[in-house]
């Protein structure tokens, strides 16, 4: 480290944050030294982003202190944090796409434009930002948009930079560039919090690593003292947390030998490459990986929602012709999307309308048969034990679990033979979660092929016959049920190819 | 400011020249300086309203009450003059009313959080209603000649109001470029969340936009009264839609963040020139709206296609770079592990 100072730039002490009654941060202690590149690791929902949003003034904590230069401070807004020398570069840079680079940098800056211009040129030179100041910011590459954000922070005299997954949208060479910039900044004494999902990058660039799990700091160590195995182990749920999910583990190790209902060969798009796999009748295949690994994008491409996708998709041996969701459904494939509010449900309409939305043409010859529609609604209400006052209850007024069941009813109503389930238990309460697990197993027993996408490793490991792990847009590992342990799946999701001996 | 924007304004200017050449070939009278000046003179009202509307559209908003504000200000001016109020004072009063009317929109949109289209649709009705209530529904005629004098006052052979508008356009352009806070209009429309993070006063900026839209409609009202010499109850009717059309035609982006006073100028003159060209081509006047609308659609569609083609090209180029780089990464990674 460049500076010999022993006082941290900033110190978080016992930070608590509660969302809707659920504590997501449970007493975080974290500090950042001058010139330190401090990596934050953790699975999805571990609390990394929430912690950084508290530090950058987006959220205020329920309890705890932020100590800056020995004083306790509270940030009420991002601007508050800017004034105190803390600048966060979000994953998607907040630029003004139609303004020039220079205009982007000067906006909101209380500084003489001439002095500012000189400083911009100096900073741009120092961190190797090569675009013209008159260029329209929207035409910059993501890498340069990030550099623009960093310069913006430095113009505000930031001593602390927070980089939230800066490398996820960058090419190999751009990542190298960014790391060199980070080293330059570190030598100037600027402290950097660096959030990333890529272990090799973290080990390469950081001085110190902290790991969050379930809202706690579970590891805080110098990078020289750890290796990737230790990191993966620290991120895994502990034995005590595991026990409750084990009971769902399927006991019969049925070797699925049904016909191939879904075959994907050489599927490519902007966000993923060379995806190929087969799914058999009665088989549950888990698709694991971190958020942003490309899982949802693959599912959307399979169902025909990605106009840029190339490659072939066969449903029960038939190649797709038009390849749109309508054809997919007609051939027996349905997709249950991750974001049900945006893509899966009519919140302001009676629940029944969602349940029968895809099979309206089958209900009655010319005019809609209310009777048939209600029969179908009642059948699924009973089958999935959906709790609602009547079929006409507005979907938006149901609980998350029951909304998900309504969405599943819609998928099942067309009697599919292949179902792509994307995060089926997200925002679903514990008891409805059990119902969803049982439903998945029942459907598999009936011979439906299921592709299960989930960020919850336990879910994937317990329910799947076979597991595919995606990392940075590629399927990097396939494992059978007997090989699949949480450790293996987690290690693969973080891009570790070898078998960590845990 | 941006190359795309400039090319859009150029495109419309080019279309304007083509239109004038074509019409001039069929009817050479069109090319006389007198008729060109006439077009300019009749475009002033639309032009000013369009500049006001531009501020609102820059912030990604919309104001459909500017035509009604024009009418209301014109009525106030007419009534005040007929009541014997001195000319400068009457003009000031009319402008004050237009600013107030704009502020009412601004309060509703920024503080009461009413969506702009609903707020201004509401005040469109209110302001038109006020015109009728104040006048009892009858036209305001017999307006004193002192204000009409300005409409025919020539300076160096060019009408006073053309000079005045030119000065206003130059001042607005200069202010939008050089005055630091003026850039907030662009920032708020381009990325409202980003603007908030930069601590740009989003509400104040929106407030200013709707107030300015009112003020410009008021200035247009003064010219209206001077040029026409009476105030019919239809004054300003439909002007808001023509102003939006002029802005869009000139390159102001309805999605916010893009545009300049020059867009409004080019768009307004073009729409007026079309009206006038139809007269010279002896096309009945009731064709005006249809032809103007069709040209607007054609220009916007052409522009959209060009932009989309550019965007697709950029996207493909980026994907290609990424693919190549991923390939490198895959071939590099094993070496690294060995080392």
Describe the structure.
- The complex is a heterodimer of chains A (502) and B (339).
- Chain A is elongated and about 75 Å long.
- In chain A, β1 and β2 (22-32) form a beta hairpin.
- The two termini of chain A are 32 Å apart.
- Chain A folds into three domains: 10-235, P-loop containing nucleotide triphosphate hydrolases (Rossmann fold, 3-Layer(aba) Sandwich); 242-249 and 258-332 and 417-427 and 443-502, P-loop containing nucleotide triphosphate hydrolases (Rossmann fold, 3-Layer(aba) Sandwich), CATH 3.40.50.300; 340-415, no CATH class.
- In chain A, the strands form four sheets. Chain A has a six-stranded mixed β-sheet, sandwiched between helices. In chain A, strands 16-17-18-13-19-20 form a six-stranded mixed β-sheet, with helices on both faces.
- The model of chain A is unreliable at 243-249 (pLDDT under 50).
- Chain A has 502 residues and is an alpha/beta fold.
- Helices cover 34% and strands 23% of the residues of chain A.
- Chain A contains 18 helices and 20 strands.
- With 339 residues, chain B is mostly helical.
- Chain B has two domains: 3-283, Orthogonal Bundle (ABC transporter involved in vitamin B12 uptake, BtuC); 286-339.
- Chain B is 78% helix and 1% strand.
- Chain B contains 13 helices and two strands.
- Chain B has helices spanning 3-26, 33-58, 66-82, 87-111, 116-135, 145-152, 160-178, 183-190, 192-197, 202-228, 239-250, 261-280, 288-338; strands spanning 154-155, 158-159.
- In chain B, α4 (87-111) packs antiparallel against α5 (116-135) and α12 (261-280) packs antiparallel against α13 (288-338).
- Chain A binds chain B through residues 77-79, 82, 94-100, 103, 106-108, 113, 136, 139, 141, 171-174, 200, 270, 273, 472-473, and chain B through 1-4, 180, 183-184, 186-187, 190-191, 193-195, 197-200, 253, 257-258, 314-315, 318-319, 321-323, 325-326, 328-329, 332, 336.
């Amino acid at each position: 480290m460049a500076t010999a100072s022993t006082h941290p730039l900033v110190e978080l002490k016992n930070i608590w944050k509660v969302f809707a009654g659920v504590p997501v941060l449970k007493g975080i202690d974290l500090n950042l030294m001058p010139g330190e590149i401090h990596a934050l690791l953790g699975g999805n929902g571990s609390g990394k982003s929430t912690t950084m949003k508290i530090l950058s003034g987006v959220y205020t904590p329920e309890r705890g202190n932020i100590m800056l230069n020995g004083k306790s401070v509270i940030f009420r807004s991002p601007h508050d944090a800017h004034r105190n020398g803390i600048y966060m570069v979000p994953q998607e840079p907040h630029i003004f796409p139609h303004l020039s680079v220079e205009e982007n940098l000067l906006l909101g800056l209380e500084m003489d434009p001439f002095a500012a211009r000189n400083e911009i040129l100096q900073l741009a030179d120092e961190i190797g930002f090569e675009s013209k100041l008159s260029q329209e910011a929207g035409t910059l590459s993501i890498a340069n948009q990030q550099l623009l954000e960093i310069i913006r922070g430095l113009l505000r005299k930031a001593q602390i930079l927070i980089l939230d997954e800066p490398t996820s949208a960058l090419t190999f060479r751009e990542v190298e560039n960014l790391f060199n910039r980070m080293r330059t900044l570190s030598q100037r004494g600027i402290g950097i919090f660096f959030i990333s999902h890529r272990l090799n990058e973290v080990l390469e660039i950081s001085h110190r690593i902290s790991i969050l799990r379930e809202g706690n700091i579970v590891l805080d160590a110098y990078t020289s003292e750890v290796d990737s195995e230790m990191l993966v182990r620290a991120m895994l749920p502990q034995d005590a947390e595991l026990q409750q999910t084990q009971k769902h583990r399927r006991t019969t190790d049925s070797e699925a030998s049904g016909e191939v209902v879904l075959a994907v060969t050489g599927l490519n798009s902007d966000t993923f490459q060379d995806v190929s796999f087969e799914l058999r009748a009665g088989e549950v295949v888990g698709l694991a990986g971190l958020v942003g690994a490309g899982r949802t994008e693959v599912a959307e491409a399979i169902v025909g929602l990605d106009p840029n996708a190339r490659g072939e998709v066969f449903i029960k041996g038939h190649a797709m012709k038009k390849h749109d969701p309508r054809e997919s459904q007609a051939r027996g494939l349905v997709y249950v999307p991750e974001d049900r509010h945006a893509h899966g449900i009519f919140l302001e309409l009676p629940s029944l309308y969602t349940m029968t939305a895809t099979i309206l043409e089958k209900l009655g010859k010319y005019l809609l048969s209310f009777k048939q529609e209600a029969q179908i609604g009642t059948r699924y209400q009973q089958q999935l034990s959906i709790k609602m006052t009547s079929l006409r209850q507005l979907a938006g007024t149901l609980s998350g679990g029951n909304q998900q069941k309504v969405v599943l009813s819609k998928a099942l109503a067309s009697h599919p033979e292949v179902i792509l389930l994307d995060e089926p238990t997200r925002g679903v309460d514990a008891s409805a979660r059990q119902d969803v697990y049982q439903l998945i197993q029942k459907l598999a027993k009936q011979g439906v092929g299921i592709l299960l996408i989930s960020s919850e490793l336990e879910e994937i490991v317990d329910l799947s016959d076979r597991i595919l792990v995606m990392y940075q847009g590629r399927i990097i590992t396939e494992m059978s049920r007997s090989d699949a342990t949480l450790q293996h799946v987690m290690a693969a999701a973080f891009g570790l190819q070898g078998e960590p001996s845990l | 400011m941006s190359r795309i924007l400039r090319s859009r304004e150029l495109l419309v200017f080019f279309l304007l020249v083509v239109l004038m050449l074509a019409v001039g070939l069929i009817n050479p009278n069109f090319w006389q300086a007198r008729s060109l000046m006439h077009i300019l003179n009749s475009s002033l009202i639309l032009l000013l309203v369009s500049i006001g509307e531009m501020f609102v559209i820059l912030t990604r908003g919309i104001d459909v009450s500017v035509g009604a504000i024009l009418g209301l200000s014109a009525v106030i001016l007419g009534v005040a003059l007929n009541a014997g109020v001195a000319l400068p004072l009457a003009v000031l009063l009319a402008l004050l009313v237009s600013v107030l009317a704009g502020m009412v929109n601004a309060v509703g949109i920024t503080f009461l959080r009413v969506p702009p289209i609903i707020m201004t649709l509401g005040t469109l009705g209110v302001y038109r209603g006020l015109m009728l209530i104040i006048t009892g529904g009858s036209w305001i005629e017999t307006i004193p000649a002192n204000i009409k004098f300005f409409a025919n006052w020539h300076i160096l052979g060019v009408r006073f109001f053309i000079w005045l508008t030119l000065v206003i356009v130059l001042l607005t352009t200069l202010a939008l470029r050089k005055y630091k806070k003026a850039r907030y209009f662009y920032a708020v429309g381009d990325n409202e969340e980003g603007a908030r993070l930069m601590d740009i006063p989003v509400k104040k900026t929106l407030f200013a936009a709707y107030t300015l839209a009112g003020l410009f409609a008021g200035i247009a009202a003064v010219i209206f009264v001077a040029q026409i010499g009476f105030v019919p109850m239809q004054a300003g009717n439909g002007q808001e839609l023509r102003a939006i059309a002029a802005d869009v035609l000139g390159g102001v982006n309805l999605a916010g963040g893009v545009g300049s006073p020059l867009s409004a100028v080019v768009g307004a003159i073009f729409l007026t020139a079309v009206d006038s060209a139809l007269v010279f081509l002896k096309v009945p006047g009731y064709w005006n709206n249809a032809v103007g609308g069709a040209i607007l659609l054609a220009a916007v569609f052409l522009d959209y296609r060009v932009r989309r083609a550019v965007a697709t090209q950029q996207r493909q180029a980026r994907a290609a770079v990424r693919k190549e780089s991923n390939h490198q990464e895959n071939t590099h990674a094993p070496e690294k592990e060995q080392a």
